[in-house]
Amino acid sequence: MKKERRKFKLSPLGIYAVLAYSFLYLPLAVVIVFSFSPTKSIVGFSGFTTRWYIKLFNDEALIAALIHSLQVSLTAVSIAVVVGTSGAFFLVRANFPGKQLFRSLSQLPLILPGIILGIALLILFMNLGFELSMFSILMGHVCFTTPVIMFQVASRLQRLPRSFEYAAKDLGATPVKIFWYVTLPMIRTAIIGGALLAFTMSFDEIIITYFLTGTWTTLPVFIYGMMRFGLSPQVFAISTVVLTFAMVLIVLMAKFTAVREEL
Amino acid sequence: MKDKESKWQVELVEVTKIYKDTIAVNNCNIKIKAGEFFSLLGPSGCGKTTTLRIIAGLEEPDEGKVFLEGGDVTNVPAHRRNVNTVFQDYAIFPHMSVYDNVYFPLKMRKISKKEADPRIKKVLKLVNLEGFEKRYSSQVSGGQRQRVASARALVNEPRVLLLDEPLGALDFKLRVSMQKVLKDIQRNLNITFIYVTHDQTEAITMSDRIAVMSQGLIHQIGTPDEIYNNPATAFVASFIGEMNFLEGLVASIPSSDTVEVSVSNKNILCKNNDQKISLNDGVLVSIRPEKVHVNPLQSLKNVIEAEISRIVFKGNNFEVTAKFDKCEVRSLVDYKVWDKSQKVGNRVKIGWNPEDVQVFPISMKKDMIQYE
Fold it and tell me: Is A91 helix (H, G, I), strand (E, B) or coil?
């Protein structure tokens, strides 16, 4: 579907939109602005500097936390893609009593307050004798990213007519080939979109991680720790970096999950 | 014309398929010859598509057996049957170009693109889609999509092509021209077509033989001529073409091949196509409108006085409805023959030959197609 570019007109609805977006994005803009402030004061603004950013890149502990975050998020999302996609097939294609209940329950880790999931996992890992490490954090992240991908893929699968698969079967494709050449390409964008969203959520996650973290920690928990020494432009700088990164992912996700005409 | 020696290419033996509490296909027996254009015709929900899917291997019958070229394929999955299907919604893979769609079945047989290329080009030429190779399904019209689906199903050179309402989504003119295209392909390649349709005109004009189905049952299998002129049941008579139905009682059976039926105290001489009929049985008398003459010049065995109740101009002919007592009989009269001075309310004689009248037991009335 081609979008027609319309001329921008400041209608009442337009003014409303501007106000709503200002409310949402002004605080973010403030963070960005203050990350370039030379003083530690958070009231008033004088001058411009990039020294907080330079300081960031020289902070080894922070860089380590960033790398940890990337490790956790990438691994968790990879696992969630496999589990979530197969779960989506089960949810859409299998028929069993209590399917609707199962469907709702599968979204629970996502809907549940992080503090409850965090405590629950902590108690579980403690009882199982696991040490708090990268592994415990990873499991926590798999827990709430799986439903994200499962939901995205399931809703695409639901809209996908079965006739494509019947046609492939009829034309000589084995079940594995049907999945690889026909079904997977048609749900690919949903998987990618779901993965990007899940990654964004995992990368920013703090509450569950906070409970499951030992000495090994991720970036959001590290930033939270930095705050104990008061707000500093360095925190704003790292926030700006994370924000930019998340924005890019969200835009990509929106592009992939948009309903395409051919389906 | 019938070649008794030829082996059946497709054979369904006592096939039954049940979904939950409806019998989709009820004890069906079908035998189809190689190179035949065979149609499964019936209203929606009659089980024709299920029958087709059983032949394709996309459904397993609950009872009965399916044979392809003499071999039992009842439990052989679809991807291992030498049968291909053109689906109702075409199912053109949207993430592949026209070329790649047609290459797909060859790719599944591990044929390299280089080796497949001449075959793909040949089949695209056959369906007149040269130059569309790089397009995607969203970039071609409905008729072209239909041809992509046909090309994709034909590239494997299947022995049997199954078509599930392939022209259902197209508008009338395009449908008529695609009917010709499909019929030409079938004739040129000399492969068996099994064609599912609810459009009786399509089935009659294209098929060598037709199986007429209703509610999972096969009512009749025959040539278009047999089905039109000698319908086996009242359902077939009502579903195919136009038909007048009159209710009456058997008054006498003058000879083994005729019966006399009393309709509103008028006796009508009919062909005795149902030998089981006996005296005083309730029957349905059926006559095609084109067999009914208004004020006939020749002498006919059945002539009834009636009053014209409606005259409808239909282009090349008139549909004249005449009423006697509570019975209405429609007649199709050629434009050149019709006396244009006739008006509604005029008294006329209507008549027909006993050979053109068939009787069915009244019990068949419930199966008939009711058009308001």
Answer: helix
Task: Please answer whether residues B250 and B280 qualify as being in contact, where contact means their C-beta atoms are separated by less than 8 angstroms.
Answer: yes
Q: Is the dihedral of CA B80, B86, B87, B93 positive or negative?
A: positive
Secondary-structure percent of chain B, ordered helix, strand, coil, rounded to 5: 25, 35, 35
Q: What is the length of chain A?
A: 263
Higher pLDDT, B240 or A228: B240
B72: three-class secondary structure by DSSP: strand
CB atoms near residue A56 (< 10 Å)? 19
A76/A54 Cα distance (integer angstroms): 30
Written as six digits, the tokens of A261 are 């005409």
pTM: 0.79
Token readout for B66 is 């399916």
Radius of gyration of chain A, Cα coordinates, nearest whole angstrom: 22
Q: What is the pLDDT of residues A149-174, one digit of tens each?
A: 999 999 999 999 999 999 999 999 99
Domain boundaries, chain A: 47-257
Rounded Cα–Cα distance for residues B250 and B26 (Å): 32
Superfamily for the A47-257 domain: MetI-like (1.10.3720.10)
At position A30, the amino acid (one-letter code) is: V
By Cβ distance, the residue of B108, B137, B138 closest to A171 is B108
**Nearest CA-CA distance, residue B208 and chain A, Å:** 25
**Within an 8 Å CB–CB cutoff, is residue B78 touching chain A?**
yes
B87/A167 CB distance under 8 A: yes
Torsion of CA B178, B179, B183, B188, to 10 degrees: -10
Are residues B102 and B155 in contact, defined by beta-carbon separation less than 8 angstroms?
A: yes
Q: Which of residues 171-190 of A touch B (CB under 8 A)?
A: 171-174, 177, 181-182, 185-186
CB contact under 8 A, B77 and A263: no
How far apart CA A123 and CA A128 sit, in angstroms, is 9
In chain B, what are the domains? 8-234 (3.40.50.300), 242-362 (2.40.50.100)
- Tell whether B166 lies on the interface with A, counting CB pairs under 8 A: no
Cα-to-chain-centroid distance, residue A152:
13
Q: Is the ipTM of this complex over 0.90?
A: no
Region for A146 from its dihedrals, namely left if φ exceeds 0, alpha if ψ lies in -120 to 50, beta otherwise: alpha
